[in-house]
């Protein structure tokens, strides 16, 4: 159910970005006077360190996403959600624990749920919260940061933002103003394409695995590129330079949000990327990276555009952006005094 | 949305083979990392089990790709993954196999080294026999008091690599280690200042074992315990190059 946004063009752009990053990196090494062989080895160790720690979680995410695709009936989920708008929204935010999806998986699943008649506000809360509020991300964040303010903050902030945005939708929005016609449930008058769970051919488990395999490659590219940038940054940019940006109460938060948006790294593994910043960036900015990124990034924006009307997409980006920005800055101020 | 193809077009079939190779290649790479001990160059040993999980899942996904390839017409597949994506995901495999594995060393200290205690629980360290304490243990012990002179005469036996900066006082170097909590992304260089008159024989970045006593002194601008070395022996890089806080 991916939105085919000219995959060839997108991949070509990704490749161009990758190659230009390498060229810039290489010329930086030459100009900084480091021994290129040693710099390459240091870079390789840093890159593989993040990749080796992150790959298992990406694989688990892809595997579970395959299982959900094949085994879980969407009707059951819709039936289980409370009908009360606020209760429904809150349970939507926690639905990810029963239904672990990262931000790549959440959009198609939400769209299917909408077609099966899931209320708007519940879907929006699920969409924003599920990439963080799920067991895989809980474990990967715990492994990266241990039990502490980052782990707790990540989950609390995500719940707050997702529920708040969901309630805004519950109060004000009607589905026909928000969703594209293709995402309507047929009962609400939409001309939704009839969605039946795909016919089963061959073993279901093998199908789940091959869906998972595709997911791994699909998400793996963002992990590789994000890791590449983080490793290059650590190898080439000095601590002092990073600290100049990373210690600003406000600037650091904005920088990390933009980074999260651009890198689009899967929420199951973004903790490990965030680790590269813990020694130089403020805690508030790390938290905004870990909360805003899973909700909104380049790839989820593209996917949102296939479900929601344009104005809603904008709304879905701006609200979480502002909220995580405010919370990030507030945490920085709290920690300063 | 889904089309059932009777025969895989050749391009898609080639891509499936490429995916297969990348997945089994990564499975082999993760397994090799575990068995060769190279894994500790990258991650905290505590999380080694994750690499087993990864190796198993890579094999499972690879096997599914193979079955899909064998019985292509039976498995309706959504959008196949393109060449660009396969190439990007193959990049870590390429890096891992082409570039010899090495832990972060002296060249990775990018900026400044941490001479103050790392701010994690330290109560247990005090009970540890001083001769068993590593660089991190010592920094933690130092962080518990404001009196650097209170360690005068305490014996120490630590290993680490040699690190120097131009502004170090004469005949001083730092015996340094990297701490790694999760993986090398959070690696932090730490170290103890060492006084040792015979500096010329010690290569920068080389691993050494130092025996000596502490004596408080001025290092750069701060009064701090300085390890007065009695012997400095050059040693092989240890199996676990990082310290795990």
What do you see in this structure?
The complex is a heterodimer of chains A (337) and B (245). Chain A contains 16 helices and no strands. Chain A is mainly α. In chain A, helix 4 packs parallel to helix 6, helix 12 packs parallel to helix 14 and helix 14 packs antiparallel against helix 16. Chain B is α/β, with parallel strands linked by helices and 245 residues long. Chain B has five helices and six strands, in the order αααααββββββ. In chain B, strand 4 and strand 5 form a beta hairpin. Chain B is elongated, with a radius of gyration of 25 Å.
Helix fraction of chain A by DSSP (H/I, runs of at least 4): over 70%
**Total tally of structural domains of chain A:** 1
Proportion of strand residues of chain B: 15-25%
Which word captures the global form of chain B? elongated
First and last CA, distance of chain A: 49 Å
Distance N to C terminus of chain B:
52 Å
Q: H/E order of the elements of chain B?
A: HHHHHEEEEEE
| Main sheet: strands, sense, barrel of chain B | 5 strands, mixed, barrel
- Nearest-integer average pLDDT of chain B: 85
Number of self-contained structural domains of chain B = 2
Q: CATH fold name of the largest domain in chain B, please? A: OB fold (Dihydrolipoamide Acetyltransferase, E2P)
Strand content bin of chain A: under 5%
Which range best describes the helical content of chain B: under 10%, 10-25%, 25-40%, 40-55%, 55-70% or over 70%?
A: 25-40%
User: How would you spell out the order of helices and strands of chain A?
Assistant: HHHHHHHHHHHHHHHH
Shape of chain A: globular
List the total number of helices of chain A: 16
Main sheet makeup of chain A: none
Structural class of chain B: alpha/beta
Count of beta strands of chain B? 6
């Amino acid at each position: 159910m991916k939105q085919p946004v000219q995959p060839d063009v997108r991949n070509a752009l990704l490749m161009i970005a990758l190659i230009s990053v390498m060229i810039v990196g290489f010329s930086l090494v030459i100009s900084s006077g480091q021994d290129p062989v040693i710099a390459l080895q240091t870079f390789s160790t840093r890159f593989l360190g993040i990749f080796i720690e992150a790959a298992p979680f990406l694989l688990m995410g892809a595997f579970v996403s395959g299982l959900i695709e094949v085994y879980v009936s969407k009707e059951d989920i819709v039936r289980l959600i409370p009908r009360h708008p606020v209760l429904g929204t809150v349970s939507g935010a926690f639905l990810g624990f029963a239904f672990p999806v990262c931000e790549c998986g959440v959009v198609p699943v939400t769209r299917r749920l909408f077609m099966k008649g899931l209320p708007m506000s519940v879907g929006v809360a699920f969409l924003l919260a599920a990439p963080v509020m799920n067991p895989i991300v809980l474990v990967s964040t715990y492994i990266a940061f241990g039990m502490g303010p980052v782990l707790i903050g990540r989950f609390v902030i995500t719940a707050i933002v997702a529920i708040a945005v969901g309630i805004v939708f519950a109060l004000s929005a009607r589905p026909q103003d928000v969703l594209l016609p293709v995402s309507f449930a047929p009962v609400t008058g939409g001309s939704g394409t009839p969605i039946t769970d795909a016919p089963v051919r061959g073993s279901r488990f093998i199908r789940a695995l091959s869906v998972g395999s595709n997911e791994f490659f699909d998400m793996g590219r963002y992990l590789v590129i994000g890791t590449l940038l983080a490793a290059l940054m650590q190898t080439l940019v000095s601590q002092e330079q990073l600290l100049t940006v990373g210690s600003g109460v406000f600037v650091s938060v904005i920088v990390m949000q933009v980074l999260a948006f651009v890198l689009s790294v899967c929420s199951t593994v973004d903790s490990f990327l965030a680790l590269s910043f813990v020694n130089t960036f403020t805690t508030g900015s790390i938290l905004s990276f870990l909360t805003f990124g899973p909700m909104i990034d380049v790839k989820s924006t593209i996917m949102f555009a296939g479900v929601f009307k344009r104005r809603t997409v904008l709304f879905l980006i701006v609200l979480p952006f502002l909220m995580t920005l405010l919370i990030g800055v507030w945490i920085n101020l709290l920690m300063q005094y | 949305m889904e089309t059932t193809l009777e025969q895989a077009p050749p391009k898609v079939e080639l891509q499936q083979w490429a995916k297969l190779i990348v997945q089994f290649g990564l499975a082999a790479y993760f397994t090799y990392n575990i068995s060769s001990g190279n894994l500790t160059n990258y991650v905290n040993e505590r999380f080694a089990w994750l690499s087993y999980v990864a190796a198993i899942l890579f094999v499972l996904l690879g096997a599914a790709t193979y079955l899909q390839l064998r019985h292509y017409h039976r498995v309706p597949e959504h959008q196949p993954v393109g060449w660009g994506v396969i190439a990007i995901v193959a990049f870590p495999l390429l890096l891992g196999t082409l570039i010899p594995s090495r832990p972060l060393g002296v060249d990775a200290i990018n900026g400044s080294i941490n001479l103050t205690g790392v701010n994690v629980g330290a109560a247990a360290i005090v009970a540890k026999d001083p001769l068993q304490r590593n660089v991190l243990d010592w920094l933690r012990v130092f962080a518990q008091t404001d009196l650097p002179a209170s360690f005068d005469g305490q014996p120490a036996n630590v290993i680490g690599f040699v690190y120097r900066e131009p502004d170090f006082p004469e005949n001083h170097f730092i015996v340094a280690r990297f701490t790694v909590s999760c993986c090398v992304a959070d690696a932090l260089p730490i170290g103890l200042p060492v006084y040792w008159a015979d500096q010329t024989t010690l290569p920068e970045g080389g691993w050494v074992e130092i025996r000596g006593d502490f004596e408080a002194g001025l290092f750069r601008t701060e009064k701090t315990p300085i390890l007065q070395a009695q012997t400095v022996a050059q040693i092989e890089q240890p199996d676990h190059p990082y310290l795990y806080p």
